[in-house]
What we know:
Chain A has 16 helices and 14 strands. Chain A is of the alpha/beta class. Chain A has 2 domains: 8-49 and 87-201, Rossmann fold (3-Layer(aba) Sandwich); 55-84 and 206-389, 3-Layer(aba) Sandwich (Rossmann fold). In chain A, β1 (7-8) and β2 (11-15) form a beta hairpin. The radius of gyration of chain A is 19 Å and the shape is globular. Chain B is an alpha/beta fold. Chain B has a single domain (3-249), classed as TIM Barrel (Alpha-Beta Barrel), CATH 3.20.20. The interface between A and B is large, with 36 and 42 residues.
Amino acid sequence: MTNKDGRFAEYGGQYVPETLMNELNKMADEYDKAKHDPEFQAELQDLLNNYANRPSLLSYAKRMTEDLGGAQIYFKREDLNHTGAHKINNVIGQALLAKRMGKTRLIAETGAGQHGVATATIAALFGMECEIFMGKEDTDRQKLNVYRMELLGAKVNSVTSGSMVLKDAINAALQEFSARTDDTFYVMGSATGPHPYPMMVRDFQSVISKESKEQFKKINNKLPDAIVACVGGGSNAIGSFANYIDDPSVQLIGVEAAGKGVETELTAATLECGSEGVFHGMKSIFLQTETGQIKPVYSISAGLDYPGVGPEHAALAKSGRAQYVGITDDEAVDAFEYIARTEGIVAAIESCHAVAYVRKLAPKMSKDQTIICTLSGRGDKDVAAIGKYRGVDVNE
Amino acid sequence: MNKLVETMQGGNKLVGYVVANDPDIDTTIQNVVALSEGGADVVEIGIPFSDPVADGPVIQRADLRALADGELPMDKVFEMVDEIHQRTDITLVFLTYLNVVLQYGYDEFCRQCETHGVSGLIIPDLPYEEQDELLPFIDKHDLALVPLVTLNSDDRIQRLVQHAKGFIYLVSSLGVTGERDEFSSYLSGIVQKIKEYTDVPVAIGFGIHSAKQASEMNQISDGVIIGSSFVRIVEEDKQDAPKRLKEYASEIKQAIIE
């Protein structure tokens, strides 16, 4: 549904300083060539299969299905990818494009550290220089991931401007990219930012739904009835939706982080609480004040803690093709424990927002209906924080 | 005629920049007056934004200071502009990010600018490709939308400057605003290239922080834009900034016209 200027209906675009325009246009042109180049696609597929461990499993959640007593539930297991999340799908694609453009240095933003770790991993694999921008609040909270990135040879730049969180890390990475385009490629972590990023990230993540559609058909010889995925910027969700958008019988549901509740200020539920704006290079929906200042956001999940959402989600929400719902911290933590005990999977707290919604949705559906829920990442990184949330002192 | 267009004619121009409400509205009024008295021809008033991605650390900090006590409603900014006009007839333009304009409403924002005597807009996150949504209102209210040209604009230059009005903001180094010691020797060539396509004056900004540099930049263009150096004075001197702003503006203007 993208037009040539990277618009998804009225959302998207390239609202960036002039310094970036030539570089973004070059990137879009080169991506267009790469997309139709069998050699590029073969190299991408080879890395996805033989490095990232694809295809990821589509597992039937037998005990959860029985327990909820409604629709049959399947998990798309992005948590089983190398580096433990869906982020690697996109990073491999963008890094290959960077290489094709003759770049030798990758930069990226990261919130909790998942995208930073994925980028550092591929930079190591490709022998490229790597610098990760991470808000100081996050480098303090996620020391283990900071060390992981350093272990992989990346330099971690602790960003002290603004509120020192993910959005400030993106600001800093955009600034670095503006200042140094000759050897540097900015690997954007979500389906956000200026064109061509939202389209490119969607394409690289759409391997999720390409696989799930085939896998599901093989098992059930039909389409699923609903796809459920968590949404921060929205990369795993858009990848989970992409190959079903033209199948109107498949309900698409994005689950946002409601934090302490959509009625409070402590939320990250952009599509429920936000309004149209322009930020980080795109026109989309943002949590903002009346004068257009970007609001601080809150969620227990650092990966969903973003004041905006990718433009394609804004368009899907507006057209009604996809629905977006909020899940609170409490509901997500309950789901974290539930899926661990019911299915033996410690899933990322981000993904548990989707799981929490499936717990509400499945009982309302009939037993012959089906849901695919994307588990975007594994939850090892969250164990200590969830322990603390429950009052258990876990020593990291 | 649009006042910015008129003011920028003739070369040797000094364009200054301060952020509205940094550290408070009264000081901002005095700062603009001081720049005017020091010899600035145009003052860009920055309307603070929570996430000024095109600005360097000095101006980022200024935006945060300006928003430290919460929102700065546009109506308060327009009142401030009225007070400035009572004390000086300097030409004013706004520099801000597109979201600030979008939330106020493009038509209403431009209408208020015209009503309150703000002659132009500089919007660093509105590149040529996205201008069509705003341009009808710029034209309707006789404002100038100042285009930015950068060292890597290359074959885009003709398109960027063809509808320019007021002046062309030539960004003297890649990246964000801030003081830099080295300036590209390409600058002169870029000015020549711009001049092939338009008669609109060219002012050079981003990173000029001495009278000597200002003079050098002015020699190859029609004027200079000083932002971070002025904002740094406001940061250091706070409410006492007007005195040093006037002295510094005067020093730079002197170097330019000599």
